[in-house]
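Quick one - inputs below.
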Amino acid sequence: MQVYIVMGVSGVGKTTIGKLLAKKLDVPFYDADDFHPSANRKKMEDGIPLQDSDRSGWLETLANKISEWEKGDGAVLACSALKEKYRKQLQSIPKEDITWIFLHSEYETILNRLSARKDHYFKPELLKSQFDTLEMPNYGFHINVEASKEEILEEIMRKLNKKNKPRIGLVGLGVMGKSLALNFASKGVDITVFNRHVEELEVDIARNFAEENKLVYEFPWFDNLKKFIESLERPRNIILMVNAGPAVDMVIESLLPFLEKDDLIIDGGNSHYKDTIKREGILKKEGILFMGAGISGGEEGALKGPSIMPGGPENAYNRAGDLLEKIAAKDKNGNPCCTHVGPDGAGHFVKMLHNGVEYGEMQLIAETYHFLRFGANTTPLEIAVLFEEWNKEMKSFLLEISVDILRKKEDNEFLIDKILDAAKQKGTGGWSTNAALELGVPLDTITAAVLARNISGKKQERVSAMDAYNREFKSATDIQKISDDLFKAYKAGSIINHAIGFDLLLEASKTYEWELNLSEIARIWTNGCIIRSSFMEDLIDILKEKPSENVLMHSDIISLIKASEAALTGIVGQALQAGYPLPVLSSAANYLLSFTSGQSSANMIQAQRDFFGAHTYERTDEPRGKFFHTQWIDN
Ligand SMILES: NC(=O)C1=CN([C@@H]2O[C@H](COP(=O)(O)OP(=O)(O)OC[C@H]3O[C@@H](n4cnc5c(N)ncnc54)[C@H](OP(=O)(O)O)[C@@H]3O)[C@@H](O)[C@H]2O)C=CC1
Ligand SMILES: O=C(CO)[C@H](O)[C@H](O)COP(=O)(O)O
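Output:
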């Protein structure tokens, strides 16, 4: 293996650069000074220049070591090697197996550096004798050190013509992993990929992926974790794109034996934020950094530019944030839709809530479609035309794909009519509801959307109940009559759904002290993610102006909602009367009315609680915080 000798006068930076180079090349580093016999060290400390007779034993020791290192893993040696005859003595292995890296600069530059060094036994006065002794080699790489450490290292690497090891490795070549790997490569980020190899089950996933893409990109691929880790630049950055839950723990556990202090794991899946907090804590004890980064955009977004919501320690983001920013979508000003959202579980909380809002928006479109399709006897194509019109204003990704869905035909029939009406879910919507329950805040529309999926799953029961209740899908209206109001209702429902979502973020930010920047979160959701829309653009300013208020309290939103409220409640009433459920629209209407009711029904709740359980109540004619109990009936 190659031995690299970083040489030059004392103070030129041999040790610093040598260590960095060794790290980069992943070989051991040695300092020639550490091999001096104590007599030599003493002379140097006393400012007595070494004679050639002093050096000869030391050079012999080093020459033996060089042969040893060459037979082993190779090495970087920092050694002054000022005279040609010293270098000759060190040349104990074939010429081509030693690379000489000569660091140099002006006498004054080095003198200034040495004068600043307090903890080194070399006295600045000896520098003059070093310059006198120096016989510049007319071979090797000559590197002027009047540059930053990083620049010096880069120059050496360029001269060595050594390609840097990739800065990032990806585990999990599923739907998202493959797209992200291609995205990294297309942005010029070298990346190595890993997928497990399970005989007869998961065979050659990584090899096949590299093979399929070899004409365009070179993916170093692995199904051996140790080799995968070794392929990466130190400290390592590893992104996991595996299924949320136990798979993440299993993968982390299998990575751990090969990781070192300061390595970083980024979990890019939809993990629960509490798992992320727990994992970060466990890994911190091992000196490993951990970031939970929500990634939204589905398969296509991951390929072309997703919205990325990384949370975790700031130093982790400082290290790898640029890699994530490179692959992220860009907002309208060209800035990456990726920002360090906050510490510990903040990234995955924000992603969870993103998905909660996504559930609400999806259900809004679904129930609007359903009322139009059956309540207004409209064809999928007619609904597509209407939604397309609405989307000129909404610019919603979900509405846009719904138009494509409604137009899709199979065997000359609309595919939407053939899809079973039982929705699946992986949990992030429900997690949002749980989080709202824990934080004691409302989450009406999102919860209604989750529960709408739950009831849709009871297909057989619904069919039987429809029969038992003699319910029919009757046409109750027509598209012309309702389209204007339906649009206003849909738009108001969407605004309320967003307001509810951001309100949960606000509460979480306060409770967990995450200092979430809601305007910045809206900004990174304007492109790449599933809930991008023109309203998200508006939210950047709304949330900048009033960062700690419910979106529904912004003056522009108040005007907008006031103008749509009648349509919202009217459509909900009309649909319910005609026998069509609108779970999210009706919960949006209910939320709006509750939110804007100075007098709620909760006085009755408090009275009931006090009646049966002596739970006490506060009074309107007494200050808040004073509690009362009444003996409601005479015994
Ligand atoms: N699909 C989407 O639209 C989005 C998904 N996400 C999230 O991204 C993550 C990945 O999703 P997606 O790519 O769709 O999922 P896939 O099911 O397509 O891929 C999962 C990957 O994880 C690997 N894996 C699973 N279990 C293990 C294990 N125990 N050990 C090692 N590897 C394992 C699989 O390997 P193998 O092939 O060997 O089974 C596969 O490479 C999930 O958390 C998901 O919620 C986030 C945004 C959008
Ligand atoms: O994260 C995503 C997009 O941002 C996933 O596509 C989303 O989680 C799908 O979730 P579900 O299966 O629960 O509908």
